[in-house]
Design a protein that fits this description.
2 domains; alpha+beta; disordered N terminus; elongated
Length: 194
Amino acid sequence: MVKTRSWRFDFDVKQRFMANSGLLLIQNEGSWAVSPLLSSHGFLPTRGSLMLDIVVCAMLFVMMILAVSIYLVRQKRLYFAHRTIQIGLASLLAIAIVGFEIDIRFFTDWRVAAEESPFYANGWVDRVLWIHLAFAIPTPFVWAFVLYGAVRNFNVAEPGEYSRFHRRWGWIASVFMLLTTVTGWGFYYLAFVA
């Protein structure tokens, strides 16, 4: 028996390497879970998991693409390009959010990696996480509301009666996305870099 830190629990386990899948699984009384060895290391030189690293880097690109999309519609009046970019970005973010949630809920115990941070014990990691969640939870709903309204009210990708409402709520959604990104980076720094 080997004493190891499992998915979310400490217990004695038998380790078994599944050669055909390449997964390191751990067994406890007949049930299997993915070893934390698979999800504990990302590609950045931090304590974050692979999915956390992907999301941190992806949010930089999301914000750049969002800025380009707004520039195209405001300055160049390329409404169809703006529409296409926004629908594509929303689709990619939906996939990323689902993947991130699956990783966080089932494979990565982020608190184990964050315990090494000097900000974990004094509660700053949790405080910044709550601030981040205050923006991250409503953002997809606000963005979906704006996207749904645009698809429903713009038959062609041109200004119309709905434009003023869409512009106001589009800026609100963009600010929410920016605050989600910035607070997410703050959380990542405090929990996995510091």
